Amino acid sequence: MARVLSGIQPTGDIHLGNYLGAVRHWAADQHAADSYFCVVDLHALTVPREPGELRSKTMETALVLVAAGLDPDVCTLFVQSHVPEHTQLAWLLECLAGMGELRRMTQFKEKAKGGDDTTARVGLFTYPVLQAADILLYDADRVPVGDEQRQHLELCRDLAVRFNQRFGETFVVPEATVPKVGARIMDLQDPTSKMSKSSESPRGVVLVLDEPDVIERKVRRAVTDPDARPQVRFDPEHKPGVSNLLQILAASTGGDPEELADGFGDYASLKTAVTDAVVELLRPVRERYLELATDPEGAEGTLVRGATKARQIAAATLARAQDAMGLYRPGS
Ligand code: AQP
Predict the structure, then answer these.
(1) Which protein residue has the closest C-alpha to ligand 1 atom 33?
(2) Is residue 10 in contact with ligand 1, taking CB distance under 6 Å?
(3) 46 lines ligand 1 (CB under 6 A)
(4) What is the 3-state secondary structure of 56-108?
């Protein structure tokens, strides 16, 4: 059985982009693979955070994942910092990674305001290596992610290949799996930027836990385009707002954005269809979340069990890497 691993940062509220680009596929594929999913709380430390909020968002994120369909009896769900092997392997990989390749990471450039390394934190610069460790520890064959994670996955593959060539076959070289539709959902207010937890425009971000009337309002106010001749057409370059709505509709209903465009004569009817589809898609997730939130002890038990299982695999892989690099381990 193939091994799958992916993660999500507890940096805010899980949004429609996270759901359509990643989480939904994790839930759908969990039966077909040996699946590991983690709340990557250490990654969340790369930008300033309020400690209490990080703690509560970590648990909330785990609950939303279960509400979205991850079954802790089928997959392994855990919190990254509960498995210390992640940071241990990250150090070994940092000793193999080059400054130049990390400087090229688009997310670093964006989050460090153009890659200004005088003020950026070291963790923001090196976290793609920690992400590589997250993946390589579990011998993951596949990593289901949204589009903007492709570059980090390439780095992970490069590090795995480099390690294997230098120290002998140690790591599985993973593949990114990116959905055909929904891999980059854009902000409803600024459809040239991706929908993001840390967006400055909450009105442009549909949250998985939003009430139906809030979803309706956000979609109704979504930016379409300044085209003098309103026309529903899938054309991300010239009509980013309309194309984003078509993409959301397609990802939510399993259709094709270009074909769906033919069914709408105006923007209002497109927005109504998008609202209906998203409300129905997210309704069960929200309802299940509200049930799960009444039992925080149950959720904590799930995460403890998940970390215990994850550690068994992580410890074995770390030991393999340590041995390969020549670190002296008593008894090895
Ligand atoms: N807009 C998006 N469309 C499709 N997929 C997306 N993902 C994120 N945004 C979109 C995918 O969701 C998974 C978890 O994301 P993450 O928590 O690792 O953080 P991120 O990629 O940095 O996403 P955010 O929401 O924008 O968080 P912040 O604001 O903290 O940076 C990943 O597989 C991601 O590709």
Answers:
(1) 145
(2) no
(3) no
(4) HHHHHHHHHHHHCCCCCCCCEEEEHHHCCHHHHHHHHHHCCCCHHHHHCCHHH
Locate 83 and state its tokens. Answer: 């498995």
pTM of the model: 0.95
Following DSSP, what letter does each residue of 20-61 receive, concatenated? IIIIHHHHHHTTTSEEEEEE-HHHHTTS---HHHHHHHHHHH
The one catalytic residue among 109, 113, 180, 194: 194
User: Catalytic site residue 194?
Assistant: yes
CB atoms within 10 A of CB 261: 21
Catalytic residue flag (residue 111): yes
Task: For residue 8, report the distance from its CA to the centre of ligand 1, in Å.
Answer: 7
* Ligand 1 atom at shortest distance from the alpha carbon of 15: 25
**Which residue, 47, 325, 25, is CA-closest to 167?**
325
Is the torsion defined by CA of 131, 59, 288, 207 positive or negative? negative
Q: What are the DSSP calls for 199-244, one per residue?
A: -S-GGG--BTT--HHHHHHHHHT------SS------TTT-HHHHH
Q: Which of 5, 12, 74, 13 is nearest to 286 (CA)?
A: 13
pLDDT in tens, the chain (332 residues): 899 999 999 999 999 999 999 999 999 999 999 999 999 999 999 988 999 999 999 999 999 999 999 999 999 999 999 999 999 999 999 999 999 999 999 888 887 776 567 788 899 999 999 999 999 999 999 999 999 999 999 999 999 999 999 999 999 999 999 999 999 999 999 999 999 998 888 999 999 999 999 999 999 999 997 766 788 999 999 899 999 999 999 999 999 999 999 999 999 999 999 999 999 999 999 999 999 999 988 889 999 999 999 999 999 999 999 999 999 988 87
| Rounded Cα distance, 94 and 33, in Å | 29
Q: How far apart are CA 108 and CA 53, in angstroms?
A: 23
